[in-house]
UniProtKB/TrEMBL annotation:
Protein family: Belongs to the metallo-dependent hydrolases superfamily. ATZ/TRZ family.
Domain (Amidohydrolase-related): residue spans on this chain: 73-465
Protein name: Probable guanine deaminase
Lineage: Eukaryota, Fungi, Dikarya, Ascomycota, Pezizomycotina
CDD domains to which the protein is assigned, alphabetical: GDEase
Co-factor requirement: Zn(2+)
Role of this protein: Catalyzes the hydrolytic deamination of guanine, producing xanthine and ammonia.
Molecular-function GO term, any one: zinc ion binding
Biological source species: Apodospora peruviana
Length: 469
């Protein structure tokens, strides 16, 4: 059935500007596509009558409207997370990347070859991220083909838009969790791609993503093979990690002298470039310690960056310079990077992006600070560009698809109670609106204090995929 959304809508117009629409209406057809956006159109009754008269969509129309303290916002896009690591969120002690991988991560990922365990973990991570407003996620699964395919099945069934990657790694990890040869890794990757393309031939909800874990765990023949595969399949994205941690960078320098790959630039980015993996479809997670030359190379290839401030802080990798990347013309989005990051929430990633940018500013670059508008852009429109879906999601425009969340803030009454839709202080969450705040201030309060209690409903392609009861 077609749907009419009426009331307040907020979305990013540009990096530093939000569009605020009130008494507005968005009509969504039964395929989930936005057919019309009407700004300032008076009462709901007028809009309904107008759309009914215009007969823009056939059949009945279901109407949804915002009440005080509520607004529709585009769904969040998590441009980097490991579905397989979800049970480990918060468990990282004082580790840093390379010991964290060996101590916590590889044993858990390997254990998900058990389909019963994989179903439990993947089912939960999908529900949890949807409840936080993540309508699109770029997932790493594990090296296991069957459970990677199961993750794609579960995303499709739950209606979460997803990039699903079977992880490739043929060196350096323990023998119990490693592809035996580059050829075996490539064959398993093809098998998983074929499966995901079979279950969703139009790639409307799920799509495969070519996933070399990171250079240290991939041989040059494997990376070159994946580069060839990416050239052969030009609609598929690629995802990997880059320059997260200083010991990792030293390891890459040691493992991949330019002679080993034929790299023109002696750098981490140069290794990916030489293997055909640095493309306009590539999502590079972290990018904390890039050199000027590497950032320029990434910009020239139009590769994208997933900024992961939670993970970069938790496992003490460093503070990525997002302003510097943006000024070089590199498209950036946000990643929770669970379980290097401890939170499933992109809103938390946005808040931490704002805070980490202030640490960069305190290091001497005052311009580094990111505003509320900017971190919300990264969480939505920027993220959409990172995953190659900017024509479909990230904003509310005719022709795009209805991937959205209904946000509700707590409205404080005259006695200091909260009378939000769900009625009780606990349920209405941390954000208290007193009634005198501008919409800009309400959004700032949401970014700095909001959580899943404010995410009342979530839709993907017009389908209701989460409702907070
Ligand atoms: O944050 C990270 N998480 C991982 O799983 C990983 N693998 C390589 N590099 C990594 N970084
Ligand atoms: Zn990661």
């Amino acid at each position: 059935m077609a749907q009419l959304f009426y009331g307040s809508f907020i979305y990013s117009k540009s990096l530093d500007e939000l569009e605020y629409l009130h008494d507005a209406a968005i009509l969504v057809d039964n395929s989930g596509k936005i057919v019309a956006v009407e700004k300032e159109c008076g009462t709901k009754e007028k809009v309904v009558e107008k759309f009914v008269n215009q007969k823009l969509v056939p059949g009945d129309v279901k109407v949804h409207e915002t009440v005080e303290g509520q607004f529709f916002f585009p769904g969040f896009i998590d441009t980097h997370l490991h579905a397989s690591q979800y049970p480990n969120v918060g468990i990282f002690g004082k580790s840093t990347l390379l010991d964290w991988l060996n101590t916590y991560t590889f044993p858990l990922e390997a254990s998900l070859a058990d389909p019963v365990k994989a179903r439990k973990v993947y089912g939960r991570v999908i529900r949890k991220t949807l409840s936080h407003g993540t309508t699109c996620a770029a997932y790493y699964a594990t090296i296991d083909v069957a459970s990677t395919n199961l993750l794609a099945d579960l995303c499709l069934a739950a209606g979460q838009r997803a990039l699903v990657g079977r992880v490739c790694m043929d060196q350096l990890s323990p023998a119990y969790y490693r592809d035996e040869t580059p050829e075996a890794a490539l064959a398993s990757t093809r098998e998983s791609i074929a499966y995901i393309q079979k279950i969703d031939p139009g790639m409307e909800i799920v799509r495969p993503v070519i996933t070399p874990r990171f250079a240290p765990s991939c041989s040059a023949p494997l990376m070159k093979g994946l580069g060839k595969l990416a050239a052969e399949m030009p609609t598929l994205p690629i995802q990997t990690h880059i320059s997260e941690n200083k010991n990792e960078i030293a390891l890459v320098r040691e493992l991949f002298p330019p002679s080993s790959t034929g790299a023109k630039q002696d750098s981490y980015a140069g290794v990916y470039d030489a293997c055909g993996l640095l493309t306009d479809r590539t999502i590079l997670a972290h990018a904390v310690h890039l050199s000027e030359d590497e950032a320029d190379l990434i910009a020239s290839r139009k590769a994208k960056v997933s900024h992961c401030p939670c993970s970069n802080s938790a496992i003490t990798s460093g503070a990525a310079r997002v302003r510097w990347l943006l000024e070089k013309g590199v498209t950036c989005g946000l990643g929770t990077d669970m379980s290097g990051g401890y939170s499933p929430s992109v809103l938390e990633a946005a808040r931490l992006a704002a805070l980490v940018s202030r640490h960069v500013a305190m290091g001497g670059d005052e311009r580094a600070k990111l505003s509320v508008e900017e971190v919300l852009y990264l969480a939505t429109k920027g993220g959409a560009e990172v995953v190659g879906l900017e024509a479909k999601v990230g904003a509310f425009e005719a022709g795009m698809e209805w991937d959205a969340q209904l946000i509700g803030l707590g409205i404080v009454d005259s006695e200091g109670g909260v009378t939000g839709v769900s009625g009780g202080l606990e349920e209405d969450g941390n954000v208290d609106v007193f009634g005198w705040e501008s919409w800009q201030d309400q959004v700032a309060k949401w970014v700095y204090n909001g959580d899943d209690r404010n995410t009342k409903k979530v839709w993907v392609r017009g389908r209701l995929v989460h409702e907070r009861k």
